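B., you asked whether I could sanity-check this one before it goes into the benchmark set. Here's the sequence:
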Amino acid sequence: MKKLQFALFIGLGLLLGSCSGAKNAEANAEGFGQIEKEMKSKFGDNAYYTQINISYDKRMGNMISTTVTDAPESLGMGEWTNLQGVWNQTSEVTIELPEGTKATDFMFQLGDKISLTKMGELVEESMKSLTKEKGIENPVLDGAYIKYPDNGDISKAQYSIMLEPENGGTTFSYYYNLDGSFDRMNY
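And here's what the prediction gave me:
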């Protein structure tokens, strides 16, 4: 009986830990790597995405929204959100394609050319840059997303990072190419 109770306790701990992982993941390479791992666990290693958006609220933690499918040829995708560590499907989407194209032309996979760990590294880099260039101490993540072009040209895809001062105010947006090279900053 003790073994069963111990196994249930460990199982419950693992379940609760995996559910809250994305919610509490820090805005850095390690934290975003944790989010990527959780997404792969939820949707599969071979899932295809058209968008991933990670935003942060100090009361709720990380909020993640994504549009994903494991069968791109079906043209059906699910819109999912992760709020307070719980994944919920919010809608189903059917995509339309220009003639002569395939669905995967307009989608990306994690770990292929796009990495949430890389995005987390760029969040860290952006925070350091904002502190150095604008004198803003302790900037916080407002949001980060993958800007994937509607025409499917992956060479135009970018990581977009939005930061703000700890107590709110102006949003500073940083844009990076997929290789991590800086493109521009707006505020």
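One thing to flag: Residues 22-186 form one domain. Otherwise nothing jumped out at me.
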